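Hey L., structure's done. Input below.
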Amino acid sequence: MPLTKITSVNYPVAKKEIAAGDLLPFYFICGEETFFVDSLQNDLIKVMPVDLRDFNMDIFYGNETTLSKVINAAKSYPMMADRRIVVLREFSALFERNKEELEDSESDEEGGSSSVDELIAYIERPNQSTIFIITDKKALGNSRLGKVIEKSNHACYAKFEPITENILPDWIIKWTQFHHNRTLEPQAALLLVQRIGSDLLAITSEIEKFSTSKKENESITLNDVTEHVRVTKEINAFDFKDAIISGNTQKSLKMAEQMLMTTKTSETGEIMRLIAFLYGYYSNIWQIQRLTQKGIPSKQIQATVGIKSEYYFNNLSKESRSFTPAKIHLAFEAILDADKAAKGFTKLEPSDILYMLIRRLTA
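Output:
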């Protein structure tokens, strides 16, 4: 029996089942990791030969249709084919447009119902000659529809969460082996993540390029990735700051290098942006410390410093406790020296100015 629950872990198994024609009549595919959502949807659509799709495949969008219209299409029979495919994308848009909640939506409109009741009735007795696919970013959670899908033997619930970067290299190695029957060196996988980040479409595209250009039994090596994959991963300034205040010099230097390689401005412009960001951060830390020592209430400190987000203020307040006055003084000295150097008061290269700043801040 085909899988009734699919995740990024067992997706390769599901892919094999679909290719072998082992299918269910209903699929709800959701999650933030759009790479898998799109991939599984495409795997199912490929079941239908291209020359039969004009008469046997319908694609709807939630912000343009109603459930009744989609379900009526799913109930219809194929024309000169074994099956038909019906796809409903952006499922939750049906309910956002009509300002209804997915859990208890029961309104009928002229032109069709947007109620999940009709969909539930279909799932319980689906048209076996139709592959009905619904996709959405939002998961169904503990909704009535979600419970019906999970209990049904006719339906599959596929939910794809983003793969975290700490397990991504291992996933890339397995993906390469499964899809291309090729070995990817562990260090090459790690470098792919460092240079590209968690963009699965970009990563798999690079793997595809290597597999196409290499001989059948050749592995993808660290040298291949070093020479042919450029840095595209964008580093968040807050992550950069976290690396600095944790005292992780090597990580901070590596992040700085990537930011300079991916910047949309000049190196000097990027450095000035980072200097301004760090100056603002340490200024906030200094003010929070000074006002806290005076016994001023937390809410008043937040208003005085001018931070609107309570979550961000609480984080800053917590971080301020790890700084001594001497360390803050040294940080200001390092930042002001870097600011002068970046404005032309030195013969150092822009990148060296930033690297020197990092070393002083993480010392």
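The chain has three domains: 5-159, 168-228, 237-362. Residues 237-362 form a domain with the Zinc Finger, Delta Prime; domain 3 fold (CATH 1.20.272.10).

-- N.
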